[in-house]
Amino acid sequence: MPKYRKKIWAGDVYEVEEFYSPRTIGKKYERILQGNLTTEEQAKRNLELARKKLTRMINANFGADDYFLTLTYDGAVEPEEAKRKIANFFRRLKRWREKNGQGALKYISVLETKGRCHHHVIINGLAGLSLKDAWEILFGLWGEGYIFLKRLKKSQEDTRLASYITKENIKKGAKRWSCSRNLEKPKVKVEEVAESKTHRPLNVPKGYIRLVYTENFFSEIGWVRYLKAVRAGGEDYGEYIQRK
Predict the structure, then answer these.
(1) CB neighbours (10 Å) of residue 150?
(2) SS3 at position 88
(3) DSSP code of residue 203
(4) Residue 238: what pLDDT?
(5) Model pTM score
(6) Which residues does residue 238 pair with via DSSP β-bridges, in sequence order?
(7) Residues 192 and 2: beta-carbon distance below 8 Å
């Protein structure tokens, strides 16, 4: 059975997975791992994979100068109406940014329907403005209710931010989030690697600090290794590294 190594770069975060697979390179080996899962276990795993994917998209596109925004409504709004209103908000914000020399709008948006509908949004920041001034502008452009705004704070060890904004259960097959089309995708490289007679842990690249390292054995495909590391001195990561 051939062995593969999948490397993923998303902003300052580097991940690598090493696994055996009877499938040809480029196929999803996760299907093998999911073969004997119950429906509940499958749903949990799908959510974990979705949160990993979302975390990588956040890391690849947003940093400390960007915003985490929550948009609320003064009254009750149905989900379909909420989707229309957030789309109109993004159009207004896009026009404002273009008119004021702020560049193209980038966003990731999640609609939460538990209780009253509200939106969790990650957007690129407004250059040269204080957080208070940015709040005033976004509040005026939203016009549907109160808003909460803060600088983006990412977690490097886990998928904490992605988990928070995707905490609500959704219908099978439904999209967990929407995003602008101009987001960069994480860089992914999959390669076949030669078998080694000795156990060799995955290497941390030079200039990176290891965050997570796991090794798990599956009877169907053997050992699966996983490494997650962050670039030393990378944006948003100084606080974490100092704690270590």
Answers:
(1) 11
(2) helix
(3) P
(4) 38
(5) 0.81
(6) none
(7) yes
What is the number of residues in the chain?
Answer: 244
List % helix, strand, coil for the chain (3-state, nearest 5): 30, 30, 45
Q: For CA atoms 35, 40, 45, 47, give the dihedral sign.
A: positive
Residues linked to residue 215 through DSSP beta bridges, in sequence order: 225
What tokens does 182 get? 């101009």
pLDDT in tens, 24-66: 444 454 554 555 666 777 777 777 888 888 888 998 999 888 9
**With b meaning 16 or more CB within 10 Å and e meaning fewer, what string describes 175-196?**
ebbbbbeeeeebeeeeeeeeee
CA dist 9 and 56 (Å) reads: 8
Residue 49 CA from chain centroid, whole number:
10
- Give residue 235's pLDDT band: very low, low, confident or very high (50, 70, 90): low
Q: What's the maximum distance between 2 C-alpha atoms anywhere in the chain?
A: 65
Which CA distances in Å does 176 have to 10, 111, 155?
20, 8, 20
Q: Residue 58 has which token pair?
A: 């956040």
> Mean pLDDT across the chain, nearest whole number?
83
pLDDT at position 194 is 83
